[in-house]
Amino acid sequence: MKQLNVTIAPLSHQLKPNCTLNSRSIDLSHVLLEHMYVGFSFGTQKLVSKCYILAWSFAMDGKVLELDLSHLPSIPQDCTPLWKFFKLYLYISVALVALLFMIVTFSISYLTKRKRKLTSEKIEDWEMDYPHKLPYRVLTKIPRRLS
């Protein structure tokens, strides 16, 4: 009976982990060839994330070689996580949309008030004492009503 154990450990952990993530009694001898490629997949519930696999060990006979941590490559430090860029772009786009909305709202408000001011008729002081003059809108409607 063959057994597959999957373990994971942080880079700072010097010893092989005692606790396995997944352990199955399975015979992979008919699947595993002498020479083949191995792939890894990684998933989280975050929108964007990165995972670095710096080393792994594998053995068919049950004796896994210990990893020498001094020979492992270093984790890239200059890379900013992608989610930080995503958050930055999200904040900038929301701010720009809000700014555009405010500009459009104030422009429409200003133009509406300006149009009202230009089209409104001003009543002069003497008109308060005497009969009022007819507005232009009323004068343009009179010929249509008479015909």
Automatic annotation (TrEMBL):
UniProt keyword Iron-sulfur, yes or no: no
Family affiliation: Belongs to the leguminous lectin family.
Source superkingdom: Eukaryota
SUPFAM superfamilies for this protein: Concanavalin A-like lectins/glucanases
Record-annotated Legume lectin domain positions: 2-71
Lineage: Eukaryota, Viridiplantae, Streptophyta, Embryophyta, Tracheophyta
Presence of keyword Membrane: yes
Record keywords, A-Z: Lectin, Membrane, Transmembrane, Transmembrane helix
GO MF entries: carbohydrate binding
Originating species: Nymphaea colorata
Chain segments annotated as transmembrane: 88-112
Descriptive protein name: Legume lectin domain-containing protein
